[in-house]
Amino acid sequence: MPNQHVPAVEIVEVLRRSEHGMTLPFICRGSDDEVYFVKGFGAGRVSQINEWISGNLALAFDIPIAPFRLVQVPEDLLEVLSPDDAVALGQGPAFGSKEQRITELTYSQVSGVPVELRRSLLIFDWWISNGDRQLTENGGNPNLFWEPRAQQLVVIDHNQSFDPEFKADDFCSYHAFRDSMSGVFDDLVEREHYTSKMEQALKDWNGIVASIPEEWLYRDPEMTMPLDFRPASMLKHLQRFNSNTFWNWK
After folding, report:
1. Which of 52, 104, 113, 161 could cysteine-pair with 130, CB 3.0–4.6 Å?
2. Residue whose C-alpha is closest to residue 135's, from 181, 175, 105
3. 64 within 8 A of 78, measured Cβ to Cβ
4. What does the pLDDT look like over 179-214, one tens digit per residue?
5. How much of the chain is helix, strand and coil, in % rounded to 5?
6. pLDDT at residue 2 is higher than 60
7. Percent of the chain's residues with pLDDT above 70
8. Among residues of the chain, what percentage have pLDDT more than 90?
9. Which domain of life is it from (predicted)?
């Protein structure tokens, strides 16, 4: 079932705040007894929207993204938090990513990721202009993890997707799976394959956009300052795979 049709789960307990990640998400327990990394008001509305749209596109693209859903933060839960944390978490709908028993992917493990998956994630990040997946022999922050029991990749964090300052040169130099660039972009069969996947992923675009909580479309909790959110422009950006420019990576 696409995530935009899954009902929100209520947050019943705030366990602590993460010390990692740009947005410092809150680690919370839901009414389903699952633990979630929750990105609320303080993470920024653009960040929440990027996570939601990119996450749903990733599901349609067969990217092994960590399970996520909308969560609902009740007002009375904020009363037990410090004033700053209460503002940062915020009341109402938030983005929740389910906690996983995983370890961060290391540079030495990259070659162990299946070739098809490396290519898929590479083209997916290029498609959504996500430069936040850098990993070299000197380290990095790829937002990629390894689930040792199932021996599979787990992908997180798309808050910096649709970056207006996306730098293609940096992407090609530092992306964790950059060695797959020529295997995707210079192969006409692979280009056709991934073009079909992108077209398929966009089939429910209107449903994904319609499922964005109304609260996220405003910069303030009182919902008096509309966010400059332009889904038509975002869709146009995603549809650029139909042009040769999209495939010109050199």
Report:
1. 161
2. 175
3. no
4. 999 999 999 999 999 999 999 999 999 999 999 999
5. 45, 20, 35
6. no
7. 98
8. 88
9. Bacteria
Category of 205 on φ-ψ map: left (φ > 0), alpha (ψ -120 to 50) or beta: alpha
Q: For residue 95, give the amino acid letter.
A: F
Residue 153, CA distances (Å) to 32, 42, 54, 109, 194 in order: 25, 28, 17, 10, 20
User: Angle at Cα 76 formed by Cα 80 and Cα 44, nearest 5°?
Assistant: 85
Burial class (CB in 10 A: 0-12, 13-18, 19+), 148: exposed
Helix (H) or strand (E) holding 12: strand 9-17
**Confidence at 20, pLDDT banded by 50, 70, 90:** confident
What residue spans define the domains of the chain? 3-101, 103-199
Mean pLDDT over 44-73 rounds to 97
Task: Determine the distance from the C-alpha atom of residue 215 to the mean position of all C-alpha atoms in its chain, rounded to a whole number.
Answer: 19
- pLDDT at residue 1, rounded to an integer: 44
Cα 139 → chain centroid? 21
Which 3 state secondary structure label does DSSP give 152?
strand
pTM: 0.94
CA 44, 235, 184 angle in degrees (round to 5)? 100
